[in-house]
Amino acid sequence: MRPVACHNHNLTMDGVDLSAIAAKAGTPCYVYSAATILENFRAYDVAFGDTPHTICYAVKANGNLALLRLLAQAGSGFDIVSGGELFRVLKAGGDPAKVVFSGVGKTAAEVEEALAAGVGYFNCESEPELALIDSLAARRGANARVALRVNPDVEADTHAHISTGRLAHKFGVDIGEAEAVYVRARRHENLSLEGVSCHIGSNVMQPGALMEAADRVLDLVARLRAQGFHIRNVDFGGGLGVQYRPEDAAPAIGEYIGALRSRIEGTDLHAMVEPGRSIVGAAGVLLARVLYRKNTGGKEFVIVDAAMTDQIRPALYDAYHEVLPLRQSGRGKLTVDVVGPVCETGDFLARGRELAEVLPGDLLAVCTAGAYGFVQASTYNARPRVAEVLVENGCWRVVRKRETYADLIRGEEPEKE
Ligand code: LLP
Q1: Residue 374: CB within 6 Å of ligand 1?
Q2: Exactly one of 29, 343, 367, 395 is catalytic; which is it?
Q3: Cα(267)–Cα(252) distance, rounded to whole angstroms?
Q4: What pLDDT, in 10s, does the model give residues 123-179?
Q5: How confident is the model over 351-376, as pLDDT tens digits?
Q6: Domain 4-32+282-408 annotated CATH 2.40.37.10
Q7: Where in the chain is the domain with CATH 3.20.20.10?
Q8: E strands of 22-143, at which residues?
Q9: Which fold has domain 103-273?
Q10: Does the Cβ of 202 fall within 6 Å of ligand 1?
């Protein structure tokens, strides 16, 4: 469910007037709905029911501390891919035992940090990584719980940049070689080889591919168990898509988890998932103000104060985000490109879009922007990163201040004598 609705011709989030937020917090800014985030988390939790499970929210989708705190308090675990994400989770009060450390390029320093924090699991993506974790765990006299991330060679129907489950991709270990890897890994005395994990891509709209991957992984688990490996944990990754276009239907969390659950019922396996987008994606909007209108080359441009620096998904993945005026004016519709101030033709938020006519000063919401929005922001063109706001229980508050010019040059000033 999207939290944005229209009341008396004004867009609101969970009953809070978005224009009022824009007026006080300024634009551009991201606004998130706590209720929607918790609702999505609970949809996962409820669907698993009494099947042993851990939901490890993928921090990369949106790592704002306030959101992480919300999820930690709701009982979520976390999927991290860097020492920085671990730092965020710990700051937010996340339980390290419910953290899974994924990623194809963990550094020794990051592995050390994770061992020191006592993360629950390492999802390992190569044999050299297994060896590294083993040696660092041995030095501490510790044991690291490890799952091998396998690459099931399943095509996820999504943008090429975010499809990860084919053998040609850099991720995981070829599922056909996984048994041999597990056998060789037996020599690592400081690893507990207790799990198998996979992740085939993001924004997957047809759960069929996710189920195919799950089936391949579960077949592997059965073979490993037959060989005496004590596999207790299966991590099915993240990937469930959300509704970006009005005409799309988002895959239902409950149905997907129900299907996973039916596959593992009757086994003693502990299920894990790593959802990011499906928890926070629909919960966020990016607010922008119209600066200018311009017609050139036969095209109508709406120039706004938000740019690809704040929301790069359209430029990077040709992504579609619905754009809505905050006030329904009753003006006619025009076909426009909504573009930002950055000096690149790729700086657009929407292209060839039908939009009710807007004028300078009007406000727009770029919808379904809670996932992979702020986290992919940059300061290109020396644009300070924007503010983030959380709407909770009918109130709102800034959960990340807008950056200042001073933030832009932090660390660049010559050292003071
Ligand atoms: N687990 C692993 C190992 C992942 O690599 C990812 C996402 C997830 C979980 C979470 O996937 P989700 O449930 O959010 O689909 N920046 C891109 C998306 C990149 C996704 C990378 N991995 C975008 O804006 O579409």
Answers
A1: no
A2: 343
A3: 24
A4: 999 999 999 999 999 999 999 999 999 998 887 777 777 777 777 778 788 899 999
A5: 999 999 999 999 999 999 999 999 99
A6: yes
A7: 103-273
A8: 29-33, 53-58, 77-80, 99-101, 121-124
A9: TIM Barrel (3.20.20)
A10: yes
